[in-house]
Write a structure and sequence with these properties.
By secondary structure, this protein is mostly helical. It contains 11 helices and 2 strands, in the order H-H-H-E-E-H-H-H-H-H-H-H-H. It has 2 domains: 12-80, Winged helix-like DNA-binding domain superfamily/Winged helix DNA-binding domain (Arc Repressor Mutant, subunit A, Orthogonal Bundle); 97-242, Four Helix Bundle (Hemerythrin (Met), subunit A) (Up-down Bundle). Strands 1-2 form a two-stranded antiparallel sheet.
Length: 243
């Protein structure tokens, strides 16, 4: 049975989808189980059948649920979820920021960000490199001025996205856009718990200098070192959050 909660202001179908999506991802509705029937959802959320159907259609498109005339609305197994969908990823980070998702994120990043750094060094334009420089110096300045965590983390996020875009690999750019929410959450937590900011800046600078110096192999290695260090800093935070 659903327990009544207030929804944030916004498009009602999107807010219903968000609320139900979080509950699916968190395990409140287990794989193989059925969502409440349409009339119950209408009564609970105080919305029309059209709104509920739009929300359910949204979740079905993300492969969280499957709608069948015979069995109703059934939650699909984890293996079938569209894990690169921005909303699904954001919901997972919101409800499951544990060691497993951190490992998943960094294994994925290690598969393409070092190569993106290689390509950015080899194929990036002068304008690409200028933008990477810009975001790096924004990050360094934010640390020096002890600016709010959100400002610092956004600079770090934009630095990584600028490198991915400078690779000029369309698939890398698409992946970078898809996992932006994961990168943002990771960046915010890393900046909040930056033990030695100067070391973090040095790791970013090693990537930057290799890319703008057009040293592809060195750029790839520097990005590997940066990501490995970030992973090692984030994993203990997930343990603390669980305790």
């Amino acid at each position: 049975m659903l327990e009544r909660e207030s929804l944030a202001v916004g498009t009602m179908s999107a807010q219903v989808a968000n609320h139900l999506g979080v509950r699916v991802v968190s395990g409140d509705f287990a794989p193989g189980s059925s969502l409440p029937i349409e009339s119950e959802l209408c009564e609970y959320y105080g919305v029309s059948r059209t709104t509920i159907r739009e929300a359910v259609k949204n979740l079905a498109a993300k492969r969280l649920i499957e709608v069948s005339p015979k069995v109703g609305t059934r939650v699909l197994p984890f293996a079938e979820w569209n894990l690169l969908d921005r909303d699904v990823l954001a919901w997972r980070l919101q409800t499951q920021f544990d060691g497993k998702i951190v490992e998943d994120i960094f294994e994925m990043r290690l598969c393409f960000e070092p190569r993106a750094s290689f390509l950015a060094a080899r194929d990036g334009t002068a304008e690409d490199h200028a933008l990477i420089d810009h975001h790096f110096f924004e990050l360094a300045s934010a640390h020096e001025q002890n600016l709010p965590i959100k400002t610092t983390s956004e600079s770090a996020l934009e630095f990584h996205l600028a490198i991915i875009n400078a690779s000029h690999n369309g698939l890398f750019v698409t992946i970078g856009s898809a996992v932006k929410s994961a990168l943002r959450v990771s960046s915010e937590r890393l900046q909040r718990h930056a033990g030695r900011p100067s070391e973090d800046i040095a790791l970013h600078d090693a990537v930057r200098s290799a890319i703008v110096g057009r040293r592809p192999a060195e750029a790839a290695r520097a990005m590997e070192h940066l990501l490995a260090a970030a992973r090692e800093r984030l994993l203990p935070l997930t343990v603390d959050a669980a305790e």
